[in-house]
TrEMBL record:
Keywords: Methyltransferase, RNA-binding, rRNA processing, S-adenosyl-L-methionine, Transferase. PANTHER family: RIBOSOMAL RNA LARGE SUBUNIT METHYLTRANSFERASE J (PTHR37426:SF1). The active site is at D160. This is Ribosomal RNA large subunit methyltransferase J. S-adenosyl-L-methionine binds at H18, H41, S96, E114, D139, G140, D160. It comes from Rhodoblastus acidophilus.
Length: 277
């Protein structure tokens, strides 16, 4: 495996994924009942935007660093504020488990799988050995199968693989299918790079065949070096998410645009309806 998130931390794809992650976690906090956060591909937890990898790629400059300084509409600013607060103002950008940690209450629990032992160790340090969150150095697809449904019966699973393997789409689809069989009411958030729109469309259609979901895509340019379009699929989305995404997407697209072809997509898959978790 060659993937190193240090090069991509805080880029436009992280911004979309993490801003939406925070909106779903805030929805789960609306009820006192405990929830569980499961992160199948958790990463190292904290990334130095001044470090050599981030500096070499420069990707955060088109993502979080641009967003921090941007003028945004008051409606979108209100929705982004909890994410921007969790992301902080310094050079250390938090990964998904560290962001989720900021929204877990004493009664909530987190479970993170990360295949690379060094990254898992780094993550344990980043989470300051928080007793509420378990970090396991193991395959996240196997972990997902082992850990759903969680005892709380409410919560969110983030599935965020590197998509370096040809069969990653298949593995995400199959593990989502079996997880939904065991936990039909669970919320799942799947991140995807959109390199070939036809492949992403076929994947979304397949996910829509499993459950109701929202597809949220952000394109910052049509050509350029590296990734220019990304997507998040939220299975069993909170009923507020569609409206929140409709408020956020035009602003994120405007602020993060790299050319005049920047665009967004917001689409219901499998006739998404209100979640009752
Ligand atoms: N979710 C993180 C975030 O938002 O900050 C970023 C995760 S990064 C895109 C993907 C991570 O998955 C890498 O840290 C990589 O080491 C890890 N990984 C790759 N294959 C894995 C597998 N089969 N199971 C668990 N982790 C894996």
């Amino acid at each position: 495996m060659n993937y190193r998130h240090e090069f991509h931390a805080g880029n436009f794809a992280d911004v979309l994924k993490h801003a939406l992650l925070v909106r779903v976690l805030l929805y789960l906090r609306r009820k006192d009942k405990p929830f569980r956060y499961i992160d199948t591909h958790a990463g190292a937890g904290l990334f130095d935007l001044d470090g050599p990898e981030a500096q070499r790629s420069g990707e955060a400059r088109g993502g979080i660093l641009r967003l921090r300084d941007a003028n945004i509409s008051p409606e979108a600013a209100e929705l982004l504020a909890p994410y921007l607060e969790a992301a902080g103002a310094g050079p250390l950008y938090p990964g998904s488990p560290k962001i989720a940690q900021a929204f877990l209450r004493p009664q909530d629990r987190g479970l993170c799988c990360e295949l690379l032992p060094e990254a898992a160790n780094h993550l344990r340090g980043a989470l300051a050995r928080d007793k509420r969150i378990k970090v396991i150095a193991r395959d996240g697809f196997e972990g997902l199968n082992a850990f759903v449904p969680p005892p709380e019966r409410r919560g969110l699973v983030l599935i965020d693989p590197p998509f370096e393997r040809r069969d990653d789409y298949e593995r995400v689809h199959d593990s989502l299918e079996s997880a939904l069989r065991k936990w039909p009411g669970g919320m799942f958030m799947v991140w995807q790079p959109v390199k070939e729109p036809e492949v992403a469309d076929a994947f979304c259609a397949a996910v829509g065949g499993l459950a109701e979901a929202l597809r949220i895509d952000l394109q910052v340019a049509t050509s350029g070096k590296g990734l220019t379009r990304t997507g998040v699929i939220v299975v069993n989305p909170p009923y507020v998410l569609e409206q929140e995404a409709a408020t956020l997407l035009p602003e994120l697209t405007r602020v993060l645009a790299q050319d005049e072809r920047a665009a967004f997509w917001l689409e219901r898959l499998g006739a998404a309806k209100v979640s009752s978790q």
